[in-house]
Amino acid sequence: MKLGLKTLVLVAVTLAAQRLFGHPQALPYAAALLLPMPWVIGPPLLDLERRWYWLAFGVGLSWDLLFEPVIGTGAISWSVPALCAWFGASVIAERRTRAWFVYGIGGTLVFWLVRSICFFPLDLPVAPTWAWIGASALLTGIWCAAVHAVLALDLAARWRRHRARRLR
Amino acid sequence: MTHRTLFYRSLLLWILFELFAAAQVQGPSGTTVLASWARALLTPPVTLIERLAHATGDLVTGFGDSRALASENRRLTDQAATLKSENATLRTDLQATLQAAESLRSLPVFTGTPARCLYRDLGRGLLLVSMDAGGLTIGHDTPVLGEGGVIGRVIRVEGQTCWVESLTRAAAAIAVTTLDGVTQGLAEGTGGPELQIQFVSLRAPLTVGQELVTSGADGIYPPGFPVARISSILERGGPFLEIKAHPVANPTTVQSVWLIDDGRIAKAPGRESP
Fold this sequence. Notes:
The complex is a heterodimer. By secondary structure, chain A is mainly alpha-helical. Chain A is built from 7 helices and no strands. In chain A, α1 (3-21) packs parallel to α3 (55-67), α4 packs antiparallel against α5 and α5 packs antiparallel against α6. By secondary structure, chain B is an alpha+beta fold. Chain B has helices at residues 3-22, 33-103; strands at residues 112-121, 126-131, 143-145, 150-158, 161-166, 173-178, 184-189, 195-198, 211-214, 226-234, 242-247, 256-260. Chain B has a 6-stranded antiparallel β-barrel. A 6-stranded antiparallel beta barrel of chain B has the order 6-7-8-11-10-9. In chain B, a hairpin with a 5-residue loop joins β6 and β7. Residues 264-274 of chain B have low confidence and may be disordered. Classes of the chains: A mainly alpha, B alpha+beta. Chains A and B meet through α4 of A and α1 of B.
């Protein structure tokens, strides 16, 4: 499977999961977890090419389709954390799991701030509570850190080595 | 791609996305938020342009009004100058009339119409005088008094103006007498500034400087009005004295005259007519 298509599928899965997290029978703060955040802060922390930055706009527009009353604000809300992450990653060399945690928290705060700013002139209901924002930042930071931890484990390589050993 | 380029491109996209979102949201007035933004953006310059247009219109109107005002001001200034000139003329006329009236105080009481001298033809001994509208009806041979005495008589009437024959005209004549009524004669015009007194006896007791007044014998001029003052008396051997006299009323300087209503001459109180 090509990388682009794989990414598309994974993003769709992420958004679908985000949708499930907002289900009425889910945990109260489950929807506060911003699952797509690793797609935004991940590419700069993984030192991928700059074109991965534009993925944030795609994620944002998809977010608008699924979660926002209007289309456009999500693209802004998701691209600003991405831009901040690219700027931050260009000056900070830290790439370990705690960096993902901090970038996740920062990206989440920037997301909610920019979303409020975008909604304000449109006279749309904005602001989640401070508790919600705090929970969202914490959960998303943990989620980003977890994603990096899984990536760092490189389970695919371990699985291939395990298969190779068994075949011998 | 540098960070700056990335930022500018992102900024452009953010603006476009925000505008796109604003186009989807309905405002309280039923229009989209984007339309209200556009209205808020366009209203100040449109209002400014409207006010500028109004100000320009007002300026043009004011300029036109000021031009009309300046023109009206010029017209009024000219009118004021004309009225001032007319006023000066009227004052001069009034002064002359008052002077004439003052000089006529010693004359017999009479009724008449004041008139203003418009034109003098001293070569022919004619004056053109103008009366005010509504005055007495002036007829032919109406006696005319000037400053100090008799000027002449009316020989032609043209509406409110009439031609006056001066006493100094060559063909003019007036019956005169001395103040005491002893000596009588006929004063004839010479075409010059003097009068010639005819038919005065050699024995008449006259002196140079003596005043002659109308005698009324000619049937035109009422008696008692000053006519001339004797300037020279000569005896050349004829049956009459050769007498010359200067008219009391100078036709060359007269400005206002009185046209005497001949039929209503009143007798001056305390003064006998000759």
